[in-house]
Amino acid sequence: MDTLELIKRSKEGDKEARDRVVAENVGLVWSIVRRFANRGYEMEDLFQIGSIGLIKAIDKFDCSYDVKFSTYAVPMITGEIKRFLRDDGMIKVSRSLKENAAKIRAYREKYSNMYGKEPTIEEIEEELKLPKDEILMALETGAEVESLYKTIYQSDGSPIYLIDKLAQSKDESENMIDKLALREVIASLDEREQEIIKLRYFNDRTQTDIAKELGISQVQVSRMEKRILKILKDKLGA
């Protein structure tokens, strides 16, 4: 059975199919993890984080994409590891707390994909056999500003996050200026372009969904999206 068929079955709730895709891509995760050697972290820990990225790739991959799954998965895995390294560098926490946060993140992803909603604290407690106070501490430690890390473009297999459009500066005033500039650029788009931005980037809708809602073809949505991103890039000097 090929990878695409396994992914389709995984999306239908076939756990065995999902496990097979994960198993077949273990080598891919390790090849990416090795790029982050000598960063002061155990390779096994980074592998666990990378595996979360792999699972996200399986769950989010659209089989209509004209791209190999491995091409799509590489930036997802890499991005998950980079976010972990960035967030870990911002808040130093104990090893056990980091491990709990990783377990909770993985379970929340799995639960959300299965049931379309977030698990309750009690459900996490029952599944992971962790005390409630440790779960709350891990959730607080691992919290991210999700809106800044929404994938805003990925049809070519290379995700661009909203925060990537902002200058990476330690100066908070400069960061604020960049965020305001992004908002102004989006406001300068026409009504349909703004609608595509909202649906695609903030509501996490697929191009196919947007096409149906707007009464146009998926190809038209794809072309408009690329044009919008070029406008953003040109006006922001990205």
Automatic annotation (TrEMBL):
Any GO molecular function: DNA binding
The protein's matches in Gene3D superfamilies, at most eight in alphabetical order, are given as: 1.20.120.1810, Winged helix-like DNA-binding domain superfamily/Winged helix DNA-binding domain
Q: Where is the signal peptide?
A: none
Q: Where is the RNA polymerase sigma-70 domain?
A: 45-58, 206-232
Could you list this entry's UniProt keywords, alphabetically sorted: DNA-binding, Sigma factor, Transcription, Transcription regulation
Q: Name one Pfam family in it.
A: Sigma70_r2
Name the source's superkingdom: Bacteria
InterPro entries given for it? RNA_pol_sigma-70_dom (IPR014284), RNA_pol_sigma-B/F/G (IPR014322), RNA_pol_sigma-F (IPR014236), RNA_pol_sigma70 (IPR000943), RNA_pol_sigma70_r2 (IPR007627), RNA_pol_sigma70_r4 (IPR007630), RNA_pol_sigma_r2 (IPR013325), RNA_pol_sigma_r3/r4-like (IPR013324)
Q: Which GO BP terms, alphabetically? A: DNA-templated transcription initiation
Transcription regulation as UniProt keyword:
yes
* Statement: the UniProt record of this protein carries the keyword Protein biosynthesis: no
Similarity annotation:
Belongs to the sigma-70 factor family.
Role played? Sigma factors are initiation factors that promote the attachment of RNA polymerase to specific initiation sites and are then released.
Q: What is this protein called?
A: RNA polymerase sigma factor
**Species of provenance:** Herbinix hemicellulosilytica
